[in-house]
Amino acid sequence: MRRLSFLVIVAALALLPVLWPDPYLLSVVAAAGIMIIAAISLNLLLGFTGQLSLGHAAFFGIGAYTSALLSLGFDVDLGFSSPLVVAPKPVWVAFAGGIVMASLFGWLLGKVAFRVRGAYFVIVTISFAQVMRMVALNWVDLTEGPMALVSIPPLSLWVPGEGVVRLVSKASTYWLVLAAGVLAYVIVANLVRSRIGRAAIALRENEVLAKSIGIPVTRCLIVFSVLSAGIAGAAGGLYAHTVRIIDPDVFLFIYTITMVIMVIAGGKGTLAGPVVGGLIFGLLPEMLRGVVAPEVQWMIYGALMILILLFMPKGIVPAFGGLLKRGRISVRRPSATQGASS
Amino acid sequence: MTVSAAEQPETLLSLSGISLRIAGLQILSDVDLRVEPGRIVSLIGPNGAGKTTAFNIISGYMRPSAGSVHFLGLDITGKQPHEIAELGLVRSFQRTNIFGNCTVFENLLTAFHMQGRSGLFGAIFRLPAFQREEQALEARTREMLGFLELEHRADDLAANLSYGEQRLLGVGIALAARPKLLLLDEPAAGLNPSETEDFKQMVRRVADSGITILLVEHDMHMVMSISDYIVVLNQGHRIADGGPADIQSDPEVIRAYLGSGLQRAKA
Ligand SMILES: Nc1ncnc2c1ncn2[C@@H]1O[C@H](COP(=O)(O)OP(=O)(O)OP(=O)(O)O)[C@@H](O)[C@H]1O
Ligand SMILES: [Mg+2]
Question: Is the alpha carbon torsion for A137, A140, A145, A150 positive or negative?
Answer without folding.
Answer: negative
